[in-house]
Predict the structure of Cytochrome bc1 complex cytochrome c subunit.
Amino acid sequence: MNALARHRYHRAAPVVLVLLLLALVTGIAAAVSTASSADAATTTADDAAEGEKLFAANCASCHGLDATGTDGVAPSLVGVGAAAVDFQVGTGRMPMQASGPQAPAKRTQFSQEEISQLAAFVASLGAGPAIPTAEQVDPELGDAANGMELFRTNCAMCHGSVGGGGALTQGKFAPSLWETTPTHIYEAMLTGPQSMPVFNDANITPEGKRNIIAYIEAQDAGSPGGLRLGAIGPVAEGMWGWLVALGLIIASTVWIGARSS
């Protein structure tokens, strides 16, 4: 009886059973993962296909059906990435309302779903910067003090010391950043729209970009010195000081003259 039991239940049987179970679980997990990846790829392909239709109807007249651009009219979009599309279309700069030195921000012409589809189509044409994640643009995770140093070193000469905007040459301008979303600020640094230079991760790290966003968001807290006076620096503040002082001097002179006569 003991010999029969030993013959039926080999000591290696539990190990073999565990290995078989592990192989079964691994196979199921791999199958699920593959199915999920296939679903994601299908979704992306569907978005790109819908984006291609939107592009042909709304953008191809300037950028060409193959998005390679038109000389003297519009640049190629091959390789600009999804971030560039999300910024330009998401801020209403594109489609451009009229020819001019630069495209101003305006009301968007597409829904967020359509913007994502256009971005997916352009991203499929060539590698480029992707749309940043929510964590990358979260100002709560940034350091506003460090962002102030980075902003004043890299951005203040155009956008002003607190992001209020400023004039450039030939009718161009650096827009105010106070109403710009954190995602669009990050995308602008990544892609360098219009007159703005590109600040890739070698120039300003992702953490540095988030710190800059935290600094800009901190400007909503108001000015500790009182009125902003346009927030364009000490020149405007000094001018107002002189105007007020001179006004008081003139008023006092007129009052004294009137009393004396």
